[in-house]
Amino acid sequence: MSHIAVERNRRRQMNEHLKVLRSLTPCFYIKRGDQASIIGGVIEFIKELHQVLQSLESKKRRKSLSPSPGPSPRPLQLTSQPDTPFGLENFKELGACCNSSVADVEAKISGSNVILRIISRRIPGQIVKIINVLEKLSFEVLHLNISSMEETVLYSFVIKIGLECQLSVEELALEVQQSFRSDAVYANEI
After folding, report:
1. Which single residue of 1, 37, 127, 146 could bond 32 by disulfide (Cβ 3.0 to 4.6 Å)?
2. How confident is the model at residue 94 (pLDDT cuts 50, 70, 90)?
3. How far is CA 31 from each of CA 14, 27, 28, 39, 63, rounded to the nearest angstrom?
4. What per-residue confidence (pLDDT) applies to 115?
């Protein structure tokens, strides 16, 4: 009888742990509710988080190795953009949009930061590419929020404008849009 109780307790604990893992993982990583899908989705999510962590650590090392300021900064140029593709009524500030069939990118000035919103279909590893583009352009990610529904994902960044940044808001939106291009070309070739 004690063996049955021990096994029942083990299964109960496994189910509780799986529920916690599922609640901590964005839903688009987990396709079905079975144990293998949950664990597989969590592994994929952890791998992507690990890539983001490596990218941020690399950026930190680069900053510590090159403390000298870059070329003199050029302020971000502002353009008026009355229509917002994301339906955000209270988000009518100065900025730029760059839309395509793969992704819609919106960059807006908010104080001394830029708010960047990207909506696209879910592409594994895309967040790492976006962060790499932002770092290469001398932006610092202050906050990132990822929301998803089925195969669509919304990335919302708050980014700090670096001293070395010499881009306009339009150029920023275009550069982020370019990070999706290689995936779109690859997807069309398959």
Report:
1. 37
2. low
3. 19, 8, 7, 11, 39
4. 87
